[in-house]
Amino acid sequence: MNSIRIQGGIALQGKVLIQGSKNAVLPVLAATLLTQECSCIRNCPRITDVHSMVCLLKALGCHVCWQERGIVIDSSRMREGELPQEAVTGMRSSLCLLGALLGRCNEVVMEYPGGCVIGERPIDLHLSALRQMGVEFTEKAGKLRAAAHKLHGAHIRLPFPSVGATENIILAGVMAEGDTVLEGAALEPEIRTLCRFLCCCGAWIDCAGENRLVIHGGRRLYGTDFTVPSDRIVAGTYLFGCIGAGGNVLLEHAPVEEMGAVLETARRMGGHVCVSSEGIYVQAPERPHSLELITAPYPGFPTDLQSVVLAVQAMGDGCSHIRETIFENRFRIVEELEKMGACIERKDSRSVTVRGVRSLHAACVEARELRGGAALVVAGLMAQGESLVRGCSYIYRGYENICRDFRELGARVTSV
Ligand code: UD1
User: Is the shortest distance between the CB of 124 and ligand 1 below 6 Å?
Assistant: First the structure.
């Protein structure tokens, strides 16, 4: 089941329920290690990254079980143990175990984390921030060893609002002695979700300004019952999927308040977008309008939706310019889209010009990373004929069941 077959050229129609957020649930699951009690995390998406995190928590001695759409984690009997290499190197989010384990037991030995191949993805910001909190890093048999005699608060200034580094500082900070003042924190909604979860457990975190957090460390944390918000990136994928393939859809429970830049972009592309208590209604234009798009840290346009906009603009009405400012190497789908007849010029590793064509034709293409893979499925929906997207295990890292969801919207999509 590593490929997806798509009969393209059918407009989307109907409604689809948006799954829980991948990027929100992963740090929350890691944070349950800090409670030494039982927590119930609801609305967890059944995606491979969540299964990997569950596997990591189990390897650490936690009792973890699924209950319908929730995961119950009892971390009271956690023990230090070898973290399964595959689960660590398979996803970038294993990195938040660094802050969580330092908070829980002051020492971690782990492989360097993996994730999508969308650029260098160094971890220098994580390391330098944690060093300021008393952590020493060494290498042990090719693995990263982090140890703190005593974690303490610090005044940290991030030169770039890294989401993962902000999460690690928060996770370590709630257990550290004293206050941690973090300037230049990332503003992504997933950070707010992590803080909300930790505060439900008894932590004290102040948002003392736009991107300034004060984490009052050293409080005892308790287990809690918490619901993960819906996934803004999955909602955005289906929204732009509709703008590309045509039709009109309702994205049930889409996290509207987190999607300002996405909705604005959809409108600039000619989509009619309405928001109600049910979610987001979108009606596609005759043909997507061309646009200038620049990705940026939140509240800017998310890098994770850049690929799907690129795919849609392949059939845009005119010439679009897209600039990626977060990750280099995030135009890996260009060659694949060209196999479908797209006309894309790469300016440099960070920008492309897309000359919209009237129609795309079906092709056999290869997914090489998560969001690019989902964008190729959208391109398949837009193309005339039967396309095949291979390498879909990447897509299943973040989309619970992209075939089911597009079928709900009337598309002819099957995993094969
Ligand atoms: C998270 C998201 C990912 C999203 C990204 C940006 C998760 C699991 N993943 O990834 O989906 O695309 O935020 O919104 O939540 N950087 C450094 N040094 C560091 C850390 C980061 O140079 O120590 C650079 C990265 O190479 C990248 C940029 O900072 O160019 C953004 O990275 P970061 O915000 O940390 O993204 P992630 O947390 O990896």
Answer: yes
Q: How many CB atoms lie within 10 A of CB 192?
A: 16
Cite the active site residues. 116
142 CA → ligand 1 middle, Å? 23
Give strand ranges (E) for 349-395. Answer: 351-355, 364-366, 386-390
Q: How far is the CA of 123 from the centre of ligand 1 (A)?
A: 9
Q: What is the pLDDT along the chain (416 residues), one digit of tens a residue?
A: 799 999 999 999 999 999 999 999 999 999 999 998 999 999 999 999 999 999 999 989 999 999 989 999 999 999 876 677 877 887 777 899 999 999 999 888 888 776 555 455 689 999 999 999 999 999 877 788 899 999 999 999 999 999 999 999 999 999 999 999 999 999 999 999 999 999 999 999 998 777 999 999 999 999 999 999 999 999 999 999 999 999 999 999 999 999 999 999 999 999 999 999 999 999 999 999 999 999 999 999 999 999 999 999 999 999 999 999 999 888 999 999 999 999 999 988 899 999 999 999 999 999 999 999 999 999 999 999 999 999 999 999 999 999 999 999 999 999 99
What does DSSP assign to residue 25?
H
Burial zone of 274 (CB within 10 Å; 0-12 exposed, 13-18 middle, 19+ buried): exposed
